[in-house]
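Researcher: Go.
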Amino acid sequence: MDQPAESQQPSNSGDTHTVLISHAGATHTFTLPTSATLADLRQEIQNAVSISPAHQKLTAPKLGLLKDDALPITSLPPPPKKVLLIGSSNAAIADVQLAASPAGAALRRFGGTGPIKPATPTHRVDWKKASEESRYSFGGFRVLQHLRGHERSVAYLRRLAADAGIKAVMAKHKFSVGMLSEMDPAEHTTHESRTLGLNRNGGEEILLRLRTDAYDGYRDYRTVRKTLCHELAHNVHGEHDRYFWDLYKVILKGVEEADWQHGGRTLEGYGDGGRVMWEGEEKEREWVEAADRGAWTGGSFVLGSGSSTGGGGGSLEDRRAMAARAAEERAKKQADENSRTA
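Model: Structure:
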């Protein structure tokens, strides 16, 4: 069997001294001046096998473990006797240190073997917000399967549930709805009125009128979203009292402000530092006040009769008539108050 190759064993001369070092099955020959010390030998070993002096353990016959670096090199036994070297290379020690570090633990966890690369910045996820949005949401969706195009109704309801404004107010007010459903216009339409939304058992189910009365299309998205805001307020207040309307307006405003696609804008010089206002707010106010006079009943959004079959909330003439009646009533109320205080 072949033996490990050993360096030629030169004899010592008067000016030099040769030492044989055995390490990891190999023999290394070092020839130094007779004036050299153990510290000089350690340096030569580092140059040859990349083991720093601090990690070298040298053991010589009859001398044992060599600790005194000032020991003359001539004190070491000459060939063929060998000095045993025990120690790990600097690279091996660095690998061990890396493995013991937090960075090394992360590297092992992800199956890495090479050097750790700088982390790539990623978008910070607000886990608290994501958890709240998941908790305060809709448990499911129900559409009218017997109607043509019910896939669009599913997409419509999912769009409402994913609406940034709806998600924001549901998390803020801790609203949870068991089922968000499509309402059948035929079951909630009379000659006098049409119901646009319904809240059953304080949030067990919310039904929304998505389709037009003639089943030939879908109602305006923002109008249906306002109806959803109304029904969400019924999660807290069943009656249409002052507390209900205050909450409804807060929810509606929160949805509009959080809507990054169609959100509100701040008007300078309006109040203290400006306030958030959305397009058509004055018309919305008249519309809500008209509804407050009795058009909303029993936890449902019921709009007065009209001939429109288009998108949500009756025809333009219906809304104008309602707004005109609301304005007349406000003027009449103001006149009565003025007469009482005169």
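Model: Residues 1-10, 263-298, 303-315 have pLDDT under 50 and may be disordered.
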